[in-house]
Amino acid sequence: MAKRRVAIVGTGQTNHKSHRPDVNGQELIHEAVVRALQDAELSINDIDAILIGNMDHFEGINYVDCWSIDGSGGYHKPIMKLTTGGTTGSTLAIGGYHFVASGMFDKVLVIGWEKNSESDTTGAITTAFDPIWDRLVFAGAISGLAVEAQSYMAKYGATDRDGARVSVRDRKHACNNPYAQLRKEVTLEEVLASPMLADPIHLLDVCPRTDGACAVVIASEDCAETITSTPDWIWATANRHTYSYLGDVNWGELDSIADASKELFKKSGINEPRKQINVIEMYQPYSLAGIIWIEDMGIIPRGKGAEYIWSGATDMGGELPINPSGGVIACNPIGATGLIRCAEAAMQVMGKAEGRQVPDVNFAVSTGFGGCMWTDMILHGKNKPNL
Amino acid sequence: MENLEHIIIESGKAVQPFHYSVGMYGSKFFHELKNNRKFVGVRCPKCKKVYVPPRQVCGECFMEMKDFIEVGPKGIISTFTILRFAFIDPETGLQKPVPYGYGFIKLDGADTLFQHFIDVTEESKVKIGARVEPVFSKEKKGTIKDILYFRIID
Amino acid sequence: MDAAIIGIGMTTIEKNKIACNYADLAWEAVNKALADASITIDDIDNVITTSSDFWDGRTISCMAVGDACALRHKNCSAVEGDGTFGAAYGLSRTLSGDYKTTLVTAHSKGSESISSIITNAAFDPIYERSLGLDMISASAIQAKQYMNVTGTTSEQLALVSCKNHKNAKDNPYAQLPMDITVNDVLNSEMIAEPLHKLDCSPVSDGCCAIIIANADFVKKVKAKPVWIKGVAFCSDAYFMGDRDLTKTIALENAAKKAYVMAGITNPENEIDIAEIYDAFTYQELMWIEGLGLAEYGNAGKLLEKGIFNRDGKLPVNPSGGLLSGHPVIAAGLYRIAEIVLQIREEAGARQVNAKRGIAHGVNGICGQSHCVWILDKEK
């Protein structure tokens, strides 16, 4: 375990939209930074170090850490860039945790951002994959997810109707979130009638393209409790970037979230995740993942995910609400997305989630997904973790 | 300020060309593919898993692999999808015609999956577990595009 | 700090390692580092890879080296920027108490792209990029201004090149070992006034790996530890026009903080060796001054006196530096590895007498962001 306790003490995000032509990248970043500092009632002078991340080829800017200074507040400060694809936002949060836990810094500002409107998102995602083997035949993120869904459906008999139920849930939840890009309820029939993009994934099963930024302030125990009376304590982090090649992936089961969950729960003494965890903010870029991945996490037995979703247990007011924010299906500024999950989980623990607040949150989980079917995870808690 | 038109700066037609090293393992694969229309994989000395495309390291065992073996050319569809939306071809920058099949093929004798296009002329036959064979291009270039696609064999 | 570097591994730095992809390079460097530390991959409990999506021509460039860095069943992360920054994050993970050993890698293959197009993308797309700036032209502007303010001469710049290329003759990893004269440098092609071809570092391929361990783990292994005494990094403003390019405020801030951590009050006397990010000749002199190892504007004169030669009072870049091989993202991690070898007295023919040294890395344009490492034989 860590040498000293670490907590999230403030969060901020932009009002995410499909296009933000009214601001440039630095200005978009600045909006989130100002909101996070306001939330923590700190000034930029209080910040000891900054971590920032996005995916380079969405905006085409090399050395984003250096370029961001006017927006990020990194002038004459330590600033570093982390980038791991879709997991970038969660990777950044885990980085902020280690910066503080190490004792190197007391207050760290973590920023994830993306202006997906500035390029062809699918084209840029395609260049993520091996230029020799994967790139020329890979068909963008949706097809990678579609083959996962096909594998799972072949093994466990789920249908696109089951997936649609997840989409209906997330899109309904998003109506409670003023920051979400898409805030419109849909019906099962509307999801199923929306255009088929890549079998079995319909247009309304997947995330949109978004311009947005998120910032989170992470602090050591020494100062966390003076900054806020309700810090969100980071109990544990775990991640797995299991594969380098898509062809090596064990399709139909997300090995990375299975392994990371085991480690996360073991580190923090969670024996019955379904009962002990009160809310999950999951980086779930398409609907069927909301069924497959809760099985991989060990929350629901294999093959029982759809039944659990249909029971309403993961809806607001249910046993274990998932994505009260509306999740990724409602909003996906990629480099920020994982950090938004972390910020939303923190808000739940801190009691700041307003219209989307789940009552009495003791433990929350946030996840990141991306790369070659990779996962990052954070366990957030209301009470201080043991050292 | 509020009434100003939003200005967008175009990056222009500039490109960043790259020449990627394939490495010796991949080079062996492409030589065999180009000259003999054969698929080559590599076996891990520890876990015995056969990787295609071949590469130096078994990620599971952290072992160097040297044992090249021929796999395929036939195999089965392990998982797939049919793309029904326009997608930018990274080689040309143009939109690919839809629909087209894309999937992961388990080549005979291999333990990992090989991704490529799948012919969907007879859509009902495209299923997980269906047997497929490669259709090669006339031109022998020594790239992944020497395979046009995989097609269903009855 | 309760952490040490217990193993390093470097590939040779070459103009074009055409036979190797990124994973091949990483595999070589990682295995060398493990062998150097006399441990196995099972002793490593987390991994940081350092790469750049721009330099590698690939979004999520870290994906290419995952298997070769053995991170399949381990916690991991990826830094984009110089290897000294990757190592700084790796250090924080070790110090956090969550991990005992962090493997840090950094790789780059400049041979696979056109460097000026890659570095052009570091400039602001709205105001600067279309003006055609790249790392060399921007650096030339900085060099001109620095020389104008300090009186540093082209001959002094040339002398840096002579020293470093000569040092490289004793470094089996270096790309450009050469015996050259000041006149050779001054007569080499003028790339961008005042920088001649031999004032500039080459385009290079290479990968470096280091292993950072906590004090408890160090006790358990037979590797010779080199202790980490201070690490700090800092950035200046972004737009060149917002900065005084003749000053090195970010480097001074980082250096001061690192010295405080290491308990150093008089760096000129307390530092025995420095491996510095000399992407261009003038930068070695500027960074020496920014690190407090010479008075402002005085590094050129000290260089002429031989202070920074391998047999001088403060050897700078006895490896040959970036001028003798510059795999962009990996370059700073090579600096750390070189200091480790020197402190362990395993630097072969380029060995100097050193117990405490500085390794230095840079991100961005004209030294916008710096990372400073103080390494020591003693804990």
Quick take:
Chain A is an alpha/beta fold and 387 residues long.
Would you write up a description of this structure?
The complex is a heterotrimer of chains A (387), B (154) and C (379). Chain A has 387 residues and is of the alpha/beta class. Chain A is built from 15 helices and 11 strands. In chain A, the strands form 2 sheets. Chain A has a 9-stranded mixed beta sheet with strand order 3-2-4-7-1-8-11-10-9. In chain A, helix 5 (88-101) packs across helix 15 (334-350). The longest helix of chain A has 17 residues, at 140-156. The relative contact order of chain A is 0.20. In chain B, the strands form 4 sheets. Chain B has a 5-stranded antiparallel beta sheet, with no helix packed on it. Chain B has a 3-stranded antiparallel beta sheet with strand order 2-1-5, with helices on one face. A two-stranded antiparallel ribbon of chain B has the order 3-4. Chain B has one domain. The longest helix of chain B has 14 residues, at 23-36. Helix content of chain B is 9%, strand content 35%. Chain C is α/β, with parallel strands linked by helices. Chain C has 13 helices and 11 strands. In chain C, helix 2 links the parallel strand 2 (46-50) and strand 3. In chain C, helix 3 (83-95) crosses helix 13 and helix 6 crosses helix 11 (281-290). In chain C, 67% of the residues are buried. Chains in contact: A-B, A-C, B-C. At the A-C interface, helix 2, helix 3, strand 3, helix 5 and strand 8 of A face strand 3, helix 3, strand 8 and helix 9 of C. Strand 3 of chain A pairs antiparallel with strand 3 (75-80) of chain C, so a sheet runs across the interface.
